[in-house]
Design a protein that fits this description.
Elements lengths: L2 H35 L1 H4 L3 H27 L1
Length: 73
């Protein structure tokens, strides 16, 4: 095996590994992009969460007010 054949094999292996790594990086980026795009579906936004907590706090306050009214009687 002469030097040119060994060099061609080394370049071919390096190109194959580079292509494989580039393919894996692209696949990972695509998966990450899909995960980011699905975040609004899976997770609740801060504003929605705050609004829901405020609503629950109001309901609890009404319950406590009624209980305080019952204790006084």
């Amino acid at each position: 095996m002469d030097f040119q054949t060994a060099f061609d094999i080394a370049i071919s292996l390096a190109a194959f590994m580079g292509g494989y790594i580039l393919n894996r990086i692209t696949a990972s980026l695509d998966k990450l992009d899909d995960d980011v795009r699905s975040m609004p579906i899976k997770y609740v936004a801060k504003d929605d969460y705050r609004r829901d907590i405020d609503h629950l706090t109001d309901i609890c306050q009404q319950i406590f007010d009624k209980l305080d009214g019952k204790v006084d009687k």
